[in-house]
Amino acid sequence: MNEGCTLQGGCRLMTSGMRMTLLMLASDIFALVCAIGAAVVVRYLFDGQFHISFYLRCAPVVVFFLAAYAMRGLYPGVLMAPHEELKGLTLGTTLIFFFLITTTFFFKASEEFSRLVMLGGWLGSVILVPFCRIAVRRRFSRRPWWGIPAVIWGAGADADTLAGRFSKDRRQGISVLGTVQPDDAGDDRLQPLREYAAMRPQPMLVCTPESRDLFFSDEVLRIEELFERTLVMPPKAFDALNVQVRDVGGVLFFQMQTKLLDPVRQRLKRTLDLTVIMLALPVLLPVMAVLAAAVRLEGGGPVFYSQPRIGRWGRHFRIIKFRTMVCNADTVLQQHLAQHPELAEEWAENQKLRCDPRITAIGGFLRRTSLDELPQLLNVLRGEMSLVGPRPIVDAEVPRYGEAFELYKRTLPGISGLWQISGRNDTTYEERVMLDTYYSRNWSVWMDLHVLSRTLWVVIKRSGAY
Fold first, then answer.
1. Per-residue pLDDT tens for 441-450?
2. What sign results for the dihedral spanned by CA atoms 422, 442, 72, 34?
3. Same domain, 115 and 195
4. What is the mean pLDDT of the chain?
Protein backbone atom coordinates (compact mmCIF):
# COMPACT_ATOMS: atom_id res chain seq x y z
CA MET A 1 0.00 0.00 0.00
CA ASN A 2 1.33 3.45 -0.97
CA GLU A 3 0.34 5.09 2.27
CA GLY A 4 3.64 6.61 3.26
CA CYS A 5 6.82 6.02 5.19
CA THR A 6 7.98 6.28 8.78
CA LEU A 7 9.86 9.41 9.68
CA GLN A 8 13.16 9.02 11.50
CA GLY A 9 12.90 9.47 15.24
CA GLY A 10 9.17 8.93 15.47
CA CYS A 11 6.19 6.86 14.49
CA ARG A 12 4.35 9.48 12.47
CA LEU A 13 3.65 8.69 8.87
CA MET A 14 4.54 10.97 6.00
CA THR A 15 1.77 10.36 3.49
CA SER A 16 2.23 10.30 -0.25
CA GLY A 17 0.41 13.61 -0.52
CA MET A 18 2.73 15.20 2.03
CA ARG A 19 5.83 13.97 0.22
CA MET A 20 4.52 15.18 -3.12
CA THR A 21 3.66 18.56 -1.58
CA LEU A 22 7.13 18.92 -0.06
CA LEU A 23 8.74 18.04 -3.40
CA MET A 24 6.64 20.63 -5.21
CA LEU A 25 7.44 23.24 -2.56
CA ALA A 26 11.16 22.50 -2.89
CA SER A 27 10.88 22.62 -6.69
CA ASP A 28 9.09 25.99 -6.64
CA ILE A 29 11.59 27.50 -4.17
CA PHE A 30 14.51 26.28 -6.27
CA ALA A 31 12.99 27.63 -9.50
CA LEU A 32 12.13 31.03 -7.99
CA VAL A 33 15.56 31.46 -6.41
CA CYS A 34 17.30 30.49 -9.66
CA ALA A 35 15.11 32.71 -11.86
CA ILE A 36 15.22 35.81 -9.67
CA GLY A 37 18.86 35.22 -8.70
CA ALA A 38 19.89 34.95 -12.36
CA ALA A 39 18.10 38.21 -13.14
CA VAL A 40 19.90 39.95 -10.27
CA VAL A 41 23.34 38.65 -11.27
CA VAL A 42 22.91 39.46 -14.97
CA ARG A 43 21.75 43.01 -14.18
CA TYR A 44 24.62 43.48 -11.71
CA LEU A 45 27.19 42.38 -14.31
CA PHE A 46 25.83 44.94 -16.76
CA ASP A 47 26.60 48.02 -14.68
CA GLY A 48 24.07 47.40 -11.94
CA GLN A 49 23.99 50.28 -9.46
CA PHE A 50 23.08 48.24 -6.40
CA HIS A 51 24.47 45.79 -3.89
CA ILE A 52 23.54 42.14 -4.35
CA SER A 53 23.24 41.87 -0.56
CA PHE A 54 20.15 44.09 -0.79
CA TYR A 55 18.33 41.44 -2.82
CA LEU A 56 19.55 38.68 -0.51
CA ARG A 57 17.72 40.39 2.35
CA CYS A 58 14.56 40.26 0.23
CA ALA A 59 14.70 36.46 -0.11
CA PRO A 60 11.81 35.85 2.34
CA VAL A 61 9.36 37.25 -0.26
CA VAL A 62 9.50 33.79 -1.84
CA VAL A 63 6.95 32.83 0.80
CA PHE A 64 4.40 35.10 -0.91
CA PHE A 65 4.79 33.13 -4.14
CA LEU A 66 4.28 29.83 -2.34
CA ALA A 67 1.17 31.22 -0.63
CA ALA A 68 -0.25 32.36 -3.98
CA TYR A 69 0.35 28.91 -5.46
CA ALA A 70 -1.23 27.22 -2.45
CA MET A 71 -4.35 29.39 -2.75
CA ARG A 72 -4.78 28.10 -6.30
CA GLY A 73 -4.62 24.47 -5.12
CA LEU A 74 -1.19 23.75 -6.60
CA TYR A 75 0.06 21.64 -3.68
CA PRO A 76 0.45 18.85 -4.55
CA GLY A 77 -1.41 19.73 -7.77
CA VAL A 78 -3.13 16.36 -8.26
CA LEU A 79 -6.45 16.23 -10.18
CA MET A 80 -5.49 19.35 -12.11
CA ALA A 81 -5.12 19.47 -15.89
CA PRO A 82 -1.62 20.53 -17.04
CA HIS A 83 -2.88 23.70 -18.71
CA GLU A 84 -4.79 24.63 -15.54
CA GLU A 85 -1.61 24.19 -13.50
CA LEU A 86 0.26 26.39 -15.99
CA LYS A 87 -2.48 28.99 -15.68
CA GLY A 88 -2.36 28.90 -11.87
CA LEU A 89 1.42 29.20 -11.73
CA THR A 90 1.56 32.02 -14.29
CA LEU A 91 -1.23 34.07 -12.71
CA GLY A 92 0.14 33.48 -9.18
CA THR A 93 3.64 34.55 -10.20
CA THR A 94 2.35 37.61 -12.05
CA LEU A 95 0.15 38.64 -9.12
CA ILE A 96 3.04 38.58 -6.63
CA PHE A 97 5.39 40.50 -8.90
CA PHE A 98 2.66 43.09 -9.45
CA PHE A 99 2.20 43.26 -5.68
CA LEU A 100 5.96 43.77 -5.15
CA ILE A 101 6.16 46.53 -7.77
CA THR A 102 3.10 48.30 -6.35
CA THR A 103 4.39 48.04 -2.77
CA THR A 104 7.82 49.47 -3.61
CA PHE A 105 6.14 52.36 -5.43
CA PHE A 106 3.85 53.29 -2.53
CA PHE A 107 6.66 53.01 0.00
CA LYS A 108 8.88 55.15 -2.25
CA ALA A 109 11.49 52.40 -2.45
CA SER A 110 11.18 51.84 -6.20
CA GLU A 111 14.56 53.51 -6.89
CA GLU A 112 16.24 50.74 -4.87
CA PHE A 113 14.87 48.05 -7.20
CA SER A 114 15.92 47.47 -10.78
CA ARG A 115 13.04 47.32 -13.25
CA LEU A 116 15.05 44.93 -15.41
CA VAL A 117 15.51 42.63 -12.42
CA MET A 118 11.75 42.63 -11.88
CA LEU A 119 11.07 41.94 -15.55
CA GLY A 120 13.75 39.28 -15.82
CA GLY A 121 12.71 37.65 -12.56
CA TRP A 122 9.09 37.49 -13.66
CA LEU A 123 9.89 36.05 -17.09
CA GLY A 124 12.36 33.53 -15.67
CA SER A 125 9.92 32.43 -12.98
CA VAL A 126 7.04 32.00 -15.43
CA ILE A 127 9.23 29.64 -17.49
CA LEU A 128 11.32 27.90 -14.84
CA VAL A 129 8.69 27.09 -12.18
CA PRO A 130 6.53 24.92 -14.51
CA PHE A 131 9.66 23.37 -16.04
CA CYS A 132 11.01 22.30 -12.65
CA ARG A 133 7.64 20.79 -11.72
CA ILE A 134 7.71 18.71 -14.90
CA ALA A 135 11.25 17.58 -14.06
CA VAL A 136 10.22 16.58 -10.52
CA ARG A 137 7.32 14.50 -11.83
CA ARG A 138 9.54 12.77 -14.37
CA ARG A 139 12.15 12.06 -11.72
CA PHE A 140 9.92 10.78 -8.90
CA SER A 141 6.68 9.51 -10.48
CA ARG A 142 8.04 5.95 -10.70
CA ARG A 143 8.77 5.76 -7.01
CA PRO A 144 6.44 3.34 -5.15
CA TRP A 145 5.25 6.06 -2.75
CA TRP A 146 4.28 8.48 -5.53
CA GLY A 147 0.57 9.13 -5.99
CA ILE A 148 -2.59 9.77 -4.00
CA PRO A 149 -4.15 6.36 -3.14
CA ALA A 150 -7.40 5.66 -4.98
CA VAL A 151 -9.98 2.88 -5.21
CA ILE A 152 -11.92 2.24 -8.42
CA TRP A 153 -15.53 1.14 -7.94
CA GLY A 154 -16.76 -0.44 -11.14
CA ALA A 155 -16.33 -3.23 -13.64
CA GLY A 156 -15.83 -3.73 -17.34
CA ALA A 157 -13.93 -1.69 -19.89
CA ASP A 158 -14.27 1.66 -18.11
CA ALA A 159 -12.69 0.37 -14.89
CA ASP A 160 -9.89 -1.35 -16.81
CA THR A 161 -9.27 1.79 -18.87
CA LEU A 162 -9.06 3.97 -15.76
CA ALA A 163 -6.69 1.64 -13.97
CA GLY A 164 -4.54 1.36 -17.09
CA ARG A 165 -4.32 5.12 -17.57
CA PHE A 166 -3.39 5.80 -13.97
CA SER A 167 -0.74 3.05 -14.04
CA LYS A 168 0.66 4.08 -17.43
CA ASP A 169 1.08 7.74 -16.54
CA ARG A 170 2.08 7.95 -12.89
CA ARG A 171 2.76 11.66 -13.28
CA GLN A 172 -0.97 12.24 -12.87
CA GLY A 173 -0.36 11.52 -9.19
CA ILE A 174 -2.95 8.78 -8.67
CA SER A 175 -1.99 5.34 -7.35
CA VAL A 176 -4.66 2.64 -7.68
CA LEU A 177 -4.94 0.47 -4.57
CA GLY A 178 -7.50 -1.84 -6.16
CA THR A 179 -10.73 -2.25 -8.09
CA VAL A 180 -14.03 -3.27 -6.49
CA GLN A 181 -16.78 -4.73 -8.68
CA PRO A 182 -20.34 -3.75 -7.70
CA ASP A 183 -21.67 -7.26 -8.39
CA ASP A 184 -19.25 -8.76 -5.88
CA ALA A 185 -20.38 -6.61 -2.96
CA GLY A 186 -23.21 -8.85 -1.78
CA ASP A 187 -25.94 -7.53 0.53
CA ASP A 188 -23.68 -4.94 2.09
CA ARG A 189 -22.11 -3.46 -0.98
CA LEU A 190 -20.16 -0.91 1.00
CA GLN A 191 -18.18 -3.51 2.94
CA PRO A 192 -15.35 -3.83 0.35
CA LEU A 193 -15.11 -0.04 0.30
CA ARG A 194 -14.95 0.10 4.11
CA GLU A 195 -11.95 -2.21 4.04
CA TYR A 196 -10.07 0.15 1.75
CA ALA A 197 -11.29 3.22 3.61
CA ALA A 198 -9.93 1.80 6.88
CA MET A 199 -6.42 2.33 5.51
CA ARG A 200 -4.57 5.46 6.42
CA PRO A 201 -4.37 7.84 4.71
CA GLN A 202 -7.92 7.75 3.37
CA PRO A 203 -7.94 7.03 -0.37
CA MET A 204 -10.07 8.61 -3.06
CA LEU A 205 -13.03 6.78 -4.54
CA VAL A 206 -13.40 6.79 -8.33
CA CYS A 207 -16.75 5.57 -9.67
CA THR A 208 -17.21 4.42 -13.27
CA PRO A 209 -20.49 4.92 -15.21
CA GLU A 210 -21.59 1.38 -14.33
CA SER A 211 -21.35 2.20 -10.61
CA ARG A 212 -22.48 5.82 -10.46
CA ASP A 213 -25.82 4.71 -9.01
CA LEU A 214 -23.87 4.13 -5.79
CA PHE A 215 -22.93 7.79 -5.61
CA PHE A 216 -26.45 9.00 -6.37
CA SER A 217 -28.13 6.61 -3.92
CA ASP A 218 -29.17 7.16 -0.30
CA GLU A 219 -25.78 5.78 0.72
CA VAL A 220 -23.97 8.87 -0.51
CA LEU A 221 -23.51 10.36 2.98
CA ARG A 222 -21.86 7.18 4.23
CA ILE A 223 -19.57 7.22 1.19
CA GLU A 224 -18.51 10.78 1.97
CA GLU A 225 -17.58 9.70 5.49
CA LEU A 226 -15.46 6.82 4.19
CA PHE A 227 -13.40 8.60 1.55
CA GLU A 228 -11.53 11.86 1.41
CA ARG A 229 -12.77 12.62 -2.11
CA THR A 230 -15.16 10.93 -4.52
CA LEU A 231 -14.92 11.29 -8.30
CA VAL A 232 -17.61 10.08 -10.67
CA MET A 233 -16.63 9.30 -14.24
CA PRO A 234 -19.27 10.67 -16.65
CA PRO A 235 -21.07 8.45 -19.19
CA LYS A 236 -19.80 8.35 -22.77
CA ALA A 237 -22.32 10.99 -23.83
CA PHE A 238 -20.45 13.56 -21.71
CA ASP A 239 -16.95 12.61 -22.85
CA ALA A 240 -14.83 15.61 -23.84
CA LEU A 241 -17.61 18.09 -23.06
CA ASN A 242 -16.97 21.39 -21.32
CA VAL A 243 -19.67 21.04 -18.65
CA GLN A 244 -20.46 23.51 -15.87
CA VAL A 245 -23.15 23.30 -13.19
CA ARG A 246 -25.55 26.25 -13.10
CA ASP A 247 -28.13 27.06 -10.42
CA VAL A 248 -31.17 28.76 -11.96
CA GLY A 249 -33.88 29.51 -9.42
CA GLY A 250 -32.89 26.58 -7.25
CA VAL A 251 -32.85 24.18 -10.21
CA LEU A 252 -29.51 22.66 -11.23
CA PHE A 253 -28.59 22.54 -14.92
CA PHE A 254 -25.60 21.34 -16.92
CA GLN A 255 -24.27 24.11 -19.17
CA MET A 256 -22.36 22.72 -22.16
CA GLN A 257 -20.25 24.83 -24.49
CA THR A 258 -17.79 24.14 -27.31
CA LYS A 259 -15.31 26.93 -26.74
CA LEU A 260 -13.69 27.03 -30.18
CA LEU A 261 -17.06 27.82 -31.76
CA ASP A 262 -17.12 31.15 -29.90
CA PRO A 263 -16.14 33.96 -32.35
CA VAL A 264 -14.43 35.96 -29.58
CA ARG A 265 -12.25 32.99 -28.63
CA GLN A 266 -11.49 32.34 -32.30
CA ARG A 267 -10.16 35.89 -32.69
CA LEU A 268 -8.14 35.53 -29.50
CA LYS A 269 -6.65 32.29 -30.77
CA ARG A 270 -5.77 33.92 -34.10
CA THR A 271 -4.04 36.77 -32.28
CA LEU A 272 -2.03 34.27 -30.23
CA ASP A 273 -0.97 32.42 -33.40
CA LEU A 274 0.29 35.56 -35.13
CA THR A 275 2.06 36.82 -32.02
CA VAL A 276 3.94 33.56 -31.47
CA ILE A 277 4.95 33.34 -35.14
CA MET A 278 6.26 36.90 -35.23
CA LEU A 279 8.34 36.27 -32.11
CA ALA A 280 9.68 32.94 -33.39
CA LEU A 281 10.44 33.82 -37.02
CA PRO A 282 13.88 35.41 -36.37
CA VAL A 283 15.01 32.06 -34.96
CA LEU A 284 13.09 29.76 -37.28
CA LEU A 285 13.89 31.37 -40.65
CA PRO A 286 17.65 30.50 -40.57
CA VAL A 287 16.78 26.96 -39.45
CA MET A 288 14.30 26.57 -42.31
CA ALA A 289 16.86 27.85 -44.81
CA VAL A 290 19.43 25.25 -43.70
CA LEU A 291 16.86 22.44 -43.82
CA ALA A 292 15.67 23.51 -47.27
CA ALA A 293 19.26 23.38 -48.56
CA ALA A 294 19.76 19.91 -47.05
CA VAL A 295 16.59 18.57 -48.72
CA ARG A 296 17.64 20.06 -52.06
CA LEU A 297 21.15 18.66 -51.92
CA GLU A 298 19.98 15.11 -51.22
CA GLY A 299 19.10 13.74 -54.65
CA GLY A 300 17.68 16.94 -56.07
CA GLY A 301 13.95 17.30 -56.52
CA PRO A 302 11.60 19.86 -54.99
CA VAL A 303 12.21 21.17 -51.48
CA PHE A 304 8.56 21.32 -50.48
CA TYR A 305 5.71 18.85 -50.71
CA SER A 306 2.04 19.74 -50.57
CA GLN A 307 -1.01 17.55 -50.07
CA PRO A 308 -4.73 18.33 -49.94
CA ARG A 309 -6.26 18.26 -46.46
CA ILE A 310 -9.67 19.14 -45.07
CA GLY A 311 -9.82 22.49 -43.33
CA ARG A 312 -12.44 24.63 -41.69
CA TRP A 313 -15.98 24.39 -43.10
CA GLY A 314 -14.88 21.25 -44.95
CA ARG A 315 -12.90 23.26 -47.50
CA HIS A 316 -9.76 21.70 -48.92
CA PHE A 317 -6.37 23.38 -48.72
CA ARG A 318 -2.86 22.23 -49.52
CA ILE A 319 -0.73 21.57 -46.47
CA ILE A 320 2.95 22.45 -46.96
CA LYS A 321 5.86 20.36 -45.65
CA PHE A 322 9.50 19.81 -46.36
CA ARG A 323 9.77 16.87 -48.76
CA THR A 324 10.78 13.76 -46.81
CA MET A 325 10.24 11.05 -49.46
CA VAL A 326 11.79 10.03 -52.76
CA CYS A 327 10.23 11.62 -55.83
CA ASN A 328 8.58 8.38 -57.05
CA ALA A 329 7.10 7.62 -53.61
CA ASP A 330 3.81 6.07 -54.80
CA THR A 331 5.57 3.55 -57.04
CA VAL A 332 8.03 2.60 -54.29
CA LEU A 333 5.17 2.09 -51.81
CA GLN A 334 3.17 -0.19 -54.11
CA GLN A 335 6.24 -2.28 -54.87
CA HIS A 336 7.09 -2.57 -51.17
CA LEU A 337 3.54 -3.63 -50.18
CA ALA A 338 3.52 -6.19 -52.99
CA GLN A 339 6.78 -7.66 -51.71
CA HIS A 340 5.63 -7.52 -48.04
CA PRO A 341 1.87 -8.22 -47.97
CA GLU A 342 1.98 -8.53 -44.16
CA LEU A 343 2.44 -4.75 -44.01
CA ALA A 344 -0.83 -4.06 -45.84
CA GLU A 345 -2.80 -4.18 -42.57
CA GLU A 346 -0.46 -1.68 -40.88
CA TRP A 347 -0.84 0.67 -43.86
CA ALA A 348 -4.63 0.28 -43.93
CA GLU A 349 -4.87 0.98 -40.17
CA ASN A 350 -2.76 4.15 -39.88
CA GLN A 351 -1.80 5.17 -43.44
CA LYS A 352 1.77 4.94 -42.11
CA LEU A 353 4.57 2.36 -42.00
CA ARG A 354 7.03 2.18 -39.15
CA CYS A 355 9.81 1.28 -41.61
CA ASP A 356 8.82 3.25 -44.70
CA PRO A 357 11.09 2.63 -47.75
CA ARG A 358 10.03 5.92 -49.34
CA ILE A 359 11.66 8.14 -46.71
CA THR A 360 15.02 9.70 -47.50
CA ALA A 361 17.90 10.02 -45.01
CA ILE A 362 17.29 13.71 -44.28
CA GLY A 363 13.54 12.97 -44.44
CA GLY A 364 13.86 10.47 -41.61
CA PHE A 365 15.53 13.10 -39.44
CA LEU A 366 12.89 15.70 -40.31
CA ARG A 367 10.06 13.32 -39.43
CA ARG A 368 11.58 12.15 -36.16
CA THR A 369 11.98 15.75 -35.06
CA SER A 370 8.76 16.98 -36.75
CA LEU A 371 10.82 19.72 -38.40
CA ASP A 372 9.26 18.75 -41.74
CA GLU A 373 6.15 20.62 -40.55
CA LEU A 374 7.83 24.01 -40.14
CA PRO A 375 6.63 25.26 -43.59
CA GLN A 376 3.08 24.92 -42.29
CA LEU A 377 3.68 28.27 -40.64
CA LEU A 378 2.75 29.66 -44.05
CA ASN A 379 -0.58 27.80 -43.80
CA VAL A 380 -1.10 29.48 -40.41
CA LEU A 381 -0.32 32.94 -41.82
CA ARG A 382 -2.83 32.28 -44.61
CA GLY A 383 -5.49 31.47 -42.03
CA GLU A 384 -5.81 27.84 -43.21
CA MET A 385 -4.39 26.36 -40.01
CA SER A 386 -3.58 27.24 -36.42
CA LEU A 387 -0.46 26.54 -34.39
CA VAL A 388 -2.51 24.20 -32.18
CA GLY A 389 -5.63 22.34 -33.19
CA PRO A 390 -7.10 19.07 -34.41
CA ARG A 391 -4.87 16.95 -36.60
CA PRO A 392 -5.44 17.83 -40.32
CA ILE A 393 -7.01 14.86 -42.08
CA VAL A 394 -7.53 13.64 -45.65
CA ASP A 395 -10.80 12.60 -47.28
CA ALA A 396 -10.21 8.91 -46.63
CA GLU A 397 -10.21 9.55 -42.86
CA VAL A 398 -13.65 11.22 -42.71
CA PRO A 399 -15.62 7.97 -42.07
CA ARG A 400 -13.36 7.17 -39.11
CA TYR A 401 -14.28 10.47 -37.43
CA GLY A 402 -17.99 9.64 -37.46
CA GLU A 403 -20.15 12.28 -35.79
CA ALA A 404 -17.03 14.09 -34.54
CA PHE A 405 -16.37 15.24 -38.13
CA GLU A 406 -19.06 17.91 -37.85
CA LEU A 407 -17.13 19.52 -35.00
CA TYR A 408 -13.83 19.05 -36.83
CA LYS A 409 -15.15 21.01 -39.84
CA ARG A 410 -15.94 24.03 -37.67
CA THR A 411 -12.40 24.44 -36.25
CA LEU A 412 -9.01 25.14 -37.80
CA PRO A 413 -6.64 22.15 -37.92
CA GLY A 414 -3.30 22.64 -36.17
CA ILE A 415 0.40 22.05 -36.70
CA SER A 416 0.52 20.58 -33.20
CA GLY A 417 -2.15 19.37 -30.83
CA LEU A 418 -3.04 17.08 -27.97
CA TRP A 419 -2.48 14.06 -30.23
CA GLN A 420 1.09 15.09 -30.99
CA ILE A 421 2.03 15.50 -27.32
CA SER A 422 0.23 12.33 -26.21
CA GLY A 423 2.29 9.73 -28.04
CA ARG A 424 1.62 10.68 -31.66
CA ASN A 425 1.74 7.47 -33.75
CA ASP A 426 1.75 5.36 -30.58
CA THR A 427 -1.90 6.32 -29.90
CA THR A 428 -4.91 4.58 -31.45
CA TYR A 429 -7.04 6.35 -34.02
CA GLU A 430 -10.01 6.44 -31.64
CA GLU A 431 -7.82 8.21 -29.06
CA ARG A 432 -6.78 10.77 -31.69
CA VAL A 433 -10.41 11.59 -32.45
CA MET A 434 -11.24 11.85 -28.74
CA LEU A 435 -8.27 14.17 -28.10
CA ASP A 436 -9.24 16.41 -31.04
CA THR A 437 -12.82 16.61 -29.78
CA TYR A 438 -11.74 17.33 -26.22
CA TYR A 439 -9.44 20.12 -27.42
CA SER A 440 -12.14 21.86 -29.48
CA ARG A 441 -14.66 21.79 -26.64
CA ASN A 442 -12.28 22.77 -23.84
CA TRP A 443 -9.90 25.17 -25.56
CA SER A 444 -8.17 27.95 -23.67
CA VAL A 445 -5.11 30.12 -24.20
CA TRP A 446 -3.43 28.16 -21.41
CA MET A 447 -4.09 24.89 -23.19
CA ASP A 448 -2.43 26.24 -26.34
CA LEU A 449 0.58 27.45 -24.35
CA HIS A 450 0.81 24.06 -22.63
CA VAL A 451 0.66 22.20 -25.96
CA LEU A 452 3.29 24.46 -27.54
CA SER A 453 5.68 24.01 -24.62
CA ARG A 454 5.15 20.24 -24.60
CA THR A 455 5.64 20.16 -28.38
CA LEU A 456 9.21 21.41 -27.92
CA TRP A 457 9.89 18.54 -25.50
CA VAL A 458 8.31 15.96 -27.85
CA VAL A 459 10.47 17.23 -30.73
CA ILE A 460 13.61 16.93 -28.61
CA LYS A 461 12.63 13.51 -27.25
CA ARG A 462 11.43 12.31 -30.70
CA SER A 463 8.93 9.87 -29.18
CA GLY A 464 6.18 8.24 -31.22
CA ALA A 465 7.30 9.77 -34.52
CA TYR A 466 8.05 7.83 -37.71
1. 889 899 999 9
2. positive
3. no
4. 83
What is the DSSP code string of 226-291?
Answer: H-S-EEEPPPGGGTT--EEEEEETTEEEEEE--GGG-HHHHHHHHHHHHHHHHHHHHHHHHHHHHH
The pLDDT of residue 187 is 57
- The residue range of the domain holding 317 is 263-324+359-461
- For residues 409 and 244, the model is more confident at 409
Range list of H helices, 107-171: 115-140, 157-168
Q: Cα–Cα distance between 288 and 282 in angstroms, integer?
A: 11
Do 297 and 444 share a domain, yes or no? yes
User: What is the C-alpha to C-alpha distance for residues 305 and 303, in angstroms, rounded to an integer?
Assistant: 7
Q: Is 4 left (phi over 0), alpha (psi -120 to 50) or beta?
A: left
- Looking at residue 18, its amino acid is M
Taking residues 2-20, what's their average pLDDT? 54
pLDDT in tens, 378-425: 999 999 999 999 989 999 889 988 888 998 998 999 999 988 787 666
Domain count, the chain: 3
Which stretches of 323-392 are assigned E, i.e. beta strand? 386-388
pLDDT, residue 157, reads: 77
Rg of the Cα atoms in the chain: 26
Q: Going by DSSP bridges, is the β-strand pair 148-153/13-14 parallel, antiparallel, or unpaired?
A: unpaired
